[in-house]
Design a protein that fits this description.
The complex is a heterodimer. By secondary structure, chain A is an all-beta fold. Chain A is 0% helix and 50% strand. Chain A is globular, with a radius of gyration of 14 Å. Classes of the chains: A mainly beta, B mainly beta.
């Protein structure tokens, strides 16, 4: 079945550091890929998405590129801020898989001032 | 003008009680979801409705029963609450079932004593 694996957290960085959160997936066909962010005490919200191979999603300084050859969708940001502290979820939605969006386990990010 | 709203935000109750959580979306979406998030932030799909029709029914105890009176509302009723039901429950909606961004409510934190 379809699945998403993302790096375990927590990830602790200093402000202005470079961020990478790894995400790999297993899916039949051509899934759409997403990154969601959950700030403390809130629901998830979409950060960025990509719907086909080599697409790059970007938002708020975050980027992720849909790599079919490595089945990956790693999240990156060049310079993190304290306000980026949150839990980040990689997710996929595929034509196979019974209409379900599959979420990774989440990676908690702490950014220190 | 909240997009996806849930009530109540907090719910504290005794084992064995029956409780309901309500969800409403004003985005005009056709599809709604219930997710359960445990203390480690793992997100699990429970149910999904598309135009009031149940399309996803994961392996959850039949003590959990969703009801969709119209496509803007998806309520969750839980009978005979157990300690293990303690979690944060999120409602979400999307325009279509596949490949689209999901909009999440703020969550309902259920604590069973």
């Amino acid at each position: 079945g379809n699945s998403v694996t993302q790096m375990e957290g927590p990830v602790t960085l200093s402000e202005e550091a470079f961020l990478t959160i790894n995400c790999t997936y297993t899916a039949t066909g051509y899934p759409s890929l997403f990154w969601y962010v959950q700030y403390p005490g809130e629901g998830l919200q979409l950060l960025l998405k990509a719907t086909k191979a080599d697409d790059k999603g970007s938002n708020k300084g975050f980027e992720a590129t849909y790599r079919k050859e490595t089945t990956s969708f790693h999240l990156e940001k060049g310079s993190v801020q304290v306000s980026d502290s949150a839990v980040y979820f990689c997710a996929l939605s595929a034509p196979t898989g019974g209409f379900k969006t599959i979420f990774g386990a989440g990676t908690r990010l702490f950014v220190k001032a | 003008d909240t997009a996806v709203s849930q009530t109540p935000k907090y719910l504290v109750t005794q084992m064995g009680n029956d409780k309901s959580i309500k969800c409403e979306q004003n985005l005009g979406h056709d599809t709604m979801y219930w997710y359960k998030q445990d203390s480690k932030k793992f997100l699990k799909i429970m149910f999904s409705y598309n135009n009031k029709e149940l399309i996803i029914n994961e392996t959850v105890p039949n003590r959990f029963s969703p009801k969709s009176p119209d496509k803007a509302h998806l309520n969750l009723h839980i009978n005979s609450l157990e300690l293990g039901d303690s979690a944060v429950y999120f409602c979400a909606s999307s325009r279509e079932v596949l490949g689209n961004e999901q909009f999440f409510g703020p969550g309902t934190r259920l604590t069973v004593l």
